[in-house]
C-alpha cells in the first residue's frame, strides 16, 4: 500500500464510511497532499463503496478541494470588492513578479501555487490573502514581498 | 409610529463576556420548554443570517416535529462579501454560541449539534474544539447529553444557504434543495433541523440572560434588538460594531462615512445599493423587506466615496455571483453570465444603452425563477446600481 492508500484507510477509519463522511475524508487528503488526485478519488470511492464519479462530482464542486496538483504553499489572494478597492491587483502583481508565475500556476520547484479567491471575510483589513490556512491582512506590495521572502527561505 | 427620530446607538451585549455561561446554561435548562420558546417569540428576535425568520417560531416548529432524531446547526459559513462578524463572535465568545446551541437542543429535543465553519476560517478550528471540549465536559457534569462537532466547508459561498449546507454535510455538491419541505421538518439526513446563524444564537443568549423585555426594548418596531454590523470600504473606521436596529442611513453615514460618501451597499453583494439622495429615507431593519424603505441585512455595510466607479463595483459583484452560482438552475447559471457579459458590452459600446433595460428585465426574471436566494437576489444589487448610476454603466 502506498502512503495515499494508507492515509485514506486511516481517514475512513477515523470518520466512518458513510456518504456523509466523504467531505471530511477528501479534506483530510487535501490537507496532507494539497490536492485530491484522480488516484486518491478512486481509492476513496473503493473505501466508501461508491462510484468514483460521485467522488469527483463532489470534490470538483468546492474551490478549496483542488483536483490539479498544487504547490506546497497555496496562496489565495482575495479579489472581492473590499480587497479590490484597496488594491488587490497590486498585490497580485507583486506576487507574480516575485515568484515568476501567473495566476493559477505553480512554481517549477513545486513550492508555491498562486490563486485568487472570493471574499475571505477580512474586508475591514483589506487586502487579505491566505497561505494554506494562515491569514495575512492589511497587505501592501512591500509587505507581501516581506512575507513571501520569509516563505521562500523556509524549507517545506 | 414614525421612527425617524432614531439616533445611532452603540450597544455592548454580544462581546461582553462575563464568563457566566455555566450559570445561564444550568438555569435555562431548568425552565419549561414552552416558557423558553414563548420568551423567544415575545422578544421578536429575527434571524441574523439574512432571511430574518423569527427565531422563536423556528425552534417551536422543530420542537413540534414528531421524530426521534433532530439536529441543531450553527451556520458559520459567513461568505457574503463584506461580512466578517461571525468569526469575531466565534473567536471572542464561543461559549455563548455553544450554550445557545445546547438550549436549542433541549427545547427541540436534539442531541447532536454541528457548527458548519467555512474553510477560510480553518485557523479557528483548534480553539473552537478546545471550547467545545470544555463545554461538553460541563454538560456531562450537569447530566445534559449533547455533542457538538465542527463540519468544515471548503470554499463555496452557496453552502451558507441552509439546504445547500445540509447537502454539503451529507457528502454531496452544495446544491440547494427545493423548499418545502423546510429544514424544521426535513433537514440534515432528512431529520427536523434548526439552522441558525452564529449571531442569532448569541442574541438568544442575551435573551436567556436578561429576559425578552430587555432585548425587545432595543431597536424599533418590527426590528427589535441589536445587530452586529461589518463595516468596510471607504470609511476611516472599518470594523465590527454592535448597533441598535432602526437607524437611518444618514445617521450611519454621519458616523462612519469619510465625508464624501456617494453610496452604501447594504447587505453585501446580494443586498442593495443606496445612493446619497436616499440616505435620509432608508432605514436599516426588517420591515417592508425589498421596498427600499427599510432594508434587512446580514450586517454588511460597505461605503463608497465619489472616487469609486459603480461600474467596477457591479462588475465585481457579478463576477462573484457568476463564480459562486451552483449552476443547478438555468436562470441563475446563465443569467449571471449574461448580466456580466451584458454590462461589458454596454460599457464597450457594442450594445446600445437601452440594452440595460433588457438586462434589468432579465435580473427581475431571475428573482422569480431562480431556485434559491442566490439567484433570486442578484437582481437586488444589479437593479439598484444600474438604476441609480446608469450614466456610469454606458460608454
Ligand atoms: C446564497 C446564500 C448564502 C447564505 N449564506 C449564509 C451564511 O453564510 N450564514 C448564515 O447564517 N446564513 C446564510 N444564509 C441564510 C441561510 O440560508 C439561513 O436562512 C440562515 O442560516 C438561518 O439562520 P437565521 O434564521 O438565524 O438567520 C444564506 C442564504 C443564501 C441564499
Ligand atoms: S439560484 Fe443559483 S445558486 Fe441557487 S440553486 Fe439556482 S443555480 Fe444554484
Question: Could you give a quick summary of the protein structure above?
Answer:
The complex is a heterodimer of chains A (156) and B (395). With 156 residues, chain A is α+β, with helices and mostly antiparallel strands.
Supply the helix-strand structural class of chain B.
alpha/beta
Largest sheet of chain B: 5 strands, mixed
Structural class of chain A: alpha+beta
The CATH superfamily label of the largest domain in chain B reads NADH-ubiquinone oxidoreductase 51kDa subunit
Listing every helix as H and every strand as E from the N terminus to the C terminus, the arrangement of chain A reads HHHHEHHEEEH
Please indicate the count of domains of chain B: 2
- The separation of the N and C termini of chain B measures 45 Å
For the residues shown, what is the average pLDDT of chain B? 94
| Ligands bound to this protein structure | flavin mononucleotide, iron/sulfur cluster
Number of strands of chain A: 4
Count of individual beta strands of chain B? 13
**Net shape of chain A:** elongated
Radius of gyration of chain A: 17 Å
- SS summary, helix count of chain A: 7
Shape of chain B: globular
Give the secondary structure arrangement, pairings included.
The complex is a heterodimer of chains A (156) and B (395).
Chain A: H1 3-15, H2 22-33, H3 38-48, H4 52-59, E1 73-78, H5 81-85, H6 88-99, E2 112-117, E3 129-131, E4 134-136, H7 141-153
Parallel strand pairs in A: 1-2
Antiparallel strand pairs in A: 1-3, 3-4
Chain B: H1 21-29, H2 33-43, H3 55-64, E1 71-76, H4 85-92, H5 94-108, E2 112-117, H6 125-141, E3 147-152, H7 162-169, E4 193-197, H8 198-210, H9 212-216, E5 219-220, E6 223-224, E7 226-233, E8 239-244, H10 249-256, E9 261-266, E10 272-275, E11 283-284, E12 294-295, E13 300-305, H11 310-324, H12 330-348, H13 355-369, H14 373-388, H15 390-393
Parallel strand pairs in B: 1-2, 1-4, 2-3, 7-13, 11-12
Antiparallel strand pairs in B: 5-6, 7-8, 9-10, 9-13
Helix pairs in contact in B: 1-5, 2-3, 5-6, 5-8, 11-12, 11-14, 12-13, 12-14, 13-14
The complex binds flavin mononucleotide and iron/sulfur cluster (SF4).
